Prior knowledge:
Structural class: alpha/beta
Amino acid sequence: xxxxxxxxxxxxxxxxxxxxxxxxxxxxxxxxxxxxxxxxxxxxxxxxxxxxxxxxxxxxxxxxxxxxxxxxxx
Length: 74
């Protein structure tokens, strides 16, 4: 399997959480962008403090989302 520059993950998933993905990616020095429909804008800063490169609340602006992916890949 190749190297990933960025991982994009939802927070709420059936088997693992976005925080599980974050831990695994951070162990490999990979930036993680998270998103969720279950949390509000007030949680965004908390998620970034916990290690996400950026975090989006659904529905989100696709241009801003793609820009964050580009920044995270640098």
